[in-house]
Amino acid sequence: MADSIHTARWLRQFDDDEIEFVLFPSTPHRRIHSLISDHGLKTVKSKITISKWMKRGGLPLGVLDLLLDNRIRARLLAKLITAFDPDLIHVMETQHSGYLTDRALSAISRKPKLVLSIWGSDLFWFQQFPKHQRKIRSVLKRVDLLVMECRRDQNLALNLGYQGKFLDVMPATGGLETSRLKQLALNNPPSRRKQIAVKGYSGFVGLGRDGLKVIEEIEDQIKDFSVMVYSAGLRTWWLSRRLRKSMGKRIVVARKHTLSNSEIEQMFLRSRVAIGLSLSDGLPATVKEAMCTGAFPVQTDTSCAGEWFDADFGGLLVPPNDVSAAAKAILRAINDDLLVDSAMNRNLTISEKRFSEINIVEMSRNIYLDPETFKQ
User: Fold this and answer.
1) What is the pTM of this model?
2) CB–CB of 198/229 below 8 Å?
3) Which domains does the chain have, with CATH numbers?
């Protein structure tokens, strides 16, 4: 996804490596992410080229292909693979990139090594629908190396017929500057913080509107706190009108893509609690960011966040569509200083081991540069 911060961060990990990338956008996009478009302006060793047809035609061709089951772009991708003759194809996300690549590879004879990175709900959510399950099985038959955020997804992949190799679990969204963030978090421990961060995303699995309902339920009990609703979809923003009226300046609702990376980082560093609700997810990037900044994560148990923090000690898991459970979790976190401060210490230790940019870059580089990676 050429407009995704996750794609951009992944590619920019390799600035110091002499690797030539050709990026084929898998979704309709209005813009190329700035970290990708600015890549050529920097003094770096890697090279990123964007498919000529897709650089400007990604939006119309992507929309048209929604009706044609990827036929147009698959033909373009097949020609590009044949012309570029890559050592490796890395498919980032399954439903858009994976299905598209599967169709493209069916039209060419040479099959390079194929890596698939699972993003969030790729397997957990979509395998329950027969049409998607058939497509997922077809993709997995081509994959040589599977990169996942969850042990949960490893078991799902095996049940769906996968026979290739697994990489150790790693966040799909790249690493963070954990040492720097740790120092900033320790300077302002969560027990002193007076802000609640609420993820407002309400896409096909996002429950941002439930996040608003949670705040409505506890509004009278959090009068000393401000609320930051971020990445809000249009429906979340519209439904926030009553809260904005009753809470005034104590609540800010920021639409999706309006906050910079620096502003999101500062938001987490000011937040005592960070709540994210969804019907399905892998390791939410926001859980990783909360853990690295000392914000206490409250997340739905339909994610695999519980594989990354100690449930009940490093964060709280709640069922989806249970506003009361999420409300109780927030109240517990804002009323228990020992809980949030001890959780910060636990999560910072985990973060330095599992989320540090240095460690993630090393794992990522091994995918491309270590010949042992694909050996069974």
Assistant:
1) 0.91
2) yes
3) 5-174+357-369 (3.40.50.2000), 178-354 (3.40.50.2000)
